[in-house]
Amino acid sequence: MTSLPRPTRRDALRLGAGGSALGALALTAGCGSEPAAGDARALRIAQKSEPTGLDPHLESGLDGMNVLINIFDTLTMRDSSNELVPRLATSWEAVDEHRWRFHLREGVTFHNGESFDAASVKFSIERLIDPATESTIIELRAVDHVEIVDEHTVDIVMADPDPVIPEKVSLFGGVMLPPGYLEDVGDEEFAAQPVGTGPFRFVSWRKAQLLRLEANAEHWNGRPAFDELHFTAMPNPASALAGIQSDVVDMVSALDPEAALQLEGYKDVALDKYPGIRMYFVVLDTEHEILRDERVRRALNHAVDVPLLIEAVLNDSGREAATIVPQEAFGYVPDIPPPERDPDLARELLAEAGHADGIELRFTSSNKEQLVCEALAGMLGDVGVTLDLELLEPGTFAERLESDDPSSLGSMYLTGSTGWTLDGGATLQSYIRSDRRRSRIRSDHADALMDTIEQTIDPDTRLEALQEMQQWLHDEAPFLFLYQADLDFATNGEITWEPNVNGTLAMETAR
C-alpha cells in the first residue's frame, strides 16, 4: 500500500463539505421550527438526530437525553463547572459498601401536580432495573432494590458494591418518574405524553420535524428564561448553517470538527468551542501474533503525530491524550505524559521486534471517522506499518462492537468512549478487564486493579488503583492513545449558555 499523505485543513474542508447543497435544500422540506405562541420567546435547537422515544428508561442515546433532561430531573447533576451537585437529592452518603442513602428535596411536584417523594425514587429506579422494562441503560446494574427510610429519604441497596452511584444518578440512571401517572395511563401513553418534574413541560412532537416544550413556571429551581424550547433533527451541517442564517434555529449542537470547519467565517454564525470528555483511541489486540510484542505497540504510539492530527483533521478541536481517562475525571493522572511522537524511534522499535521490513495490520472503524483513519494510515505508513482499512457503516460497526467474535474488528479498531459519570473507571470498564466484550487485554494484574476501581467504596484506595492503572497503560501500551474531543456549537450569537463537559443540553440556565 502506498503511504497516504497527511490531510490538511483544506482537505478536511473539501471532504467534509460533500453534499452540502443537497443538505441545504432539505431545510425547505418542513424540517424547521415554528413561531412560539403569541409573544413567547423560544430557544430553537438543531441536533443530529431526535429521540427514539420519550420514555427515559428506554432512551440511551445522548440526543434523546438532550431532550429528556429538560423534561425530567435527576437525583444529582453536573453543573457547568463539572461539579457533582444536588438536584432532586439534596445530599447523599454511603452507609456501607452495599447501601447508598439519599436525602430528597421537599416540596417538588411533577407537571401533573403529583408529589415527588421517596416512593417516586423507589418506583423509578426499580422500574429501570426490572428486566421486564427491557432498558438498555446499564449504569445501575449493581442495584438490587430501593428501601424507603421515610417520606424524603431512600436507601439504594446494592447487590454488588458500586462506588459511583451518586455520579450514575446524575443522568440516565437518575431520571425520576411519577408512579401515579404511569399507573393511570400505562407505559405507551406515558411515552407519548411524558410527565416529569423538570424545568420544561412536554407540549407536542411532530416526528422528523419539531419537538416542542414549554417553560415550567412552577419548577422548584425557578422558571427558565425561555418560554419554549424547540428541538429539530438536522443531520446535515449545511442544513444547520442555512437554519441559523434564515432564522429557523438559534443553536446547532455537537458539530463534528469538519462540520464546524464548514461554518467558520459565515455571517451571523458564532462558533463556540468547549472542552469535552469523549476519548478517542485505537484498541490493539494484545494477543495478535504481531501486537503481542510491547515494542510494536509502543512503536505505533511513537509513529502517530497526534498534535498534527488534531490541528489538520480536527480543526484544533481536541486535546492530546496520554491515557483513555478524561482529564476532568476522578483519578486522572496529569503527570503521565503522552507517548513521544518520534517516527525514528518507532522504526527502531519495529526493527528490534523483528519487523524491519514493515508489517501489515487489519484496521476497523466507523466510516464517520474516515478522515482520522486516513491520517493514521498515512502516519503509520511512514514507519512501515500498512493498514488494511475496513470502514463500516456506523450501525454495522456498532454491531461488531457488541459481537462475541473479536476477529470481526480486526487486529486493531478505532473507538470513542464517553465516561459521562466523570469517574476514571467509566472509560476503563469496557476495555480493560479480560471478561469484557470490548477488551483485548489478558492481564491478571489489570483485572485486579479493575476490581478495586469498580468495587471499592473508599476514594483514596480507588484513587491509588486508578493511578497505578494509568501508569500500567502507559508502560504496556495496549492502546494507540489519541485525543479527547472538544464540543463544538454554532449559534446566532444571541444565546448565553455554557455546557458541562458531558455536553448535554440542559437549557434551564440559557439566557
TrEMBL record:
Solute-binding protein family domain: residues covered: 83-432
Residues that span the membrane, as ranges: none
Pfam family of the protein (one): SBP_bac_5
Domain of life: Bacteria
Entry keyword annotation includes Transcription regulation: no
Keywords: Signal, Transport
Keyword Cytoplasm applies: no
Gene3D superfamilies for this protein: Dipeptide-binding Protein, Domain 1, Dipeptide-binding Protein, Domain 3, Periplasmic binding protein-like II
Family designation: Belongs to the bacterial solute-binding protein 5 family.
Designated name of the protein: Peptide/nickel transport system substrate-binding protein
